[in-house]
Amino acid sequence: MASLLSSLSSDTAVHLTTREALSGIFGSVSLACWIFLLVPQLIENYRNHSAEAISLSFIFVWFIGDICNLAGALWAGLVPVVIAIGVYFCIADGVLIGQCLYYSIVNKRREGKALLARQSSTAEDTEEEPLLRRTRTNSITIPGSGDRRRSSASGRRRMSAAAHDDHLAKILEESDASGTRLWFKNAMSVLAIFIIGAAGWALAYESGAWKPSPTSTDTEEEKMAAGAQILGYASAVAYLGARIPQIIKNAREKSCEGLSLLFFILSLMGNLTYGAGILFHSTEHDYVMKNLPWLIGSLGTMVEDVVIFAQFHMYAAEGKDREEEAIA
């Protein structure tokens, strides 16, 4: 960071203040967070072949917030990059919603087929039972075949139980080793995204694609932003309300299994750097009030993200205790 700021002392950056540079850097880092935000959860769903851990209400309400955000950007006539990012958000939300619905339909069909198979197996056993008794009475079957059948079935049950125990042991080994490893991977991911965001801003500034925006606006622009501000408040309400169904779902199931921790880390980081980018740019009353909806939507949701982090820690500890009790 220091080396990046020191490079701004050249003639091309003589008019750029430290606050403007930090505002640009934090804004670019926030943009990088939003671009990569949904990728960890999409990967987590793909690995599990399930999206049951995610509350669909969470995603749908968030989608509504992104639509309001995009509509506000279009209404305000913001730069094409901002509008393009808004379109990307909506597309990414649609991909995540589509993935959740796909796995929900596929898993329900699989469960239905498994249920039918069990019912069919039970019906066949009931129909064959008198025939088996009759063959034993008439001594037509090969001697010992019934014993082999029973031993084969019991062997399959033992193999299934052994496989289950091996799987449980593997889970426990991974849970013991994944604590520091998971946090290290997440920390490296956050560091990489921060470097990408800062480097992206530096390139944009050196090429002249990024310039500090003025903090004061004329009356015409303020009138244009009035409708966008209403949509901004609507998006802030949606963002604040979106996480509540997910928090309730986690508390009801007492589990965060299937949720990507990095997804919420990037959300927290994106909201923090977004708010910092606005406040570093200016803390004048008119400017803050103009951006208040987006500040509420970004900084307000950080409290809910912290609650979800607490749920991750609490339910992971409880799950580990239950697994140890089951083995004992």
Automatic annotation (TrEMBL):
Keywords: Membrane, Transmembrane, Transmembrane helix. It is found in: Membrane. InterPro entries: LAAT-1 (IPR051415), PQ-loop_rpt (IPR006603). It is a multi-pass membrane protein. The chain crosses the membrane at residues 20-39, 51-75, 81-103, 182-204, 224-241, 261-280. Residues 126-157 are annotated as: Disordered. Its main location: membrane. This is Vacuolar membrane PQ loop repeat protein. It comes from Exophiala sideris.
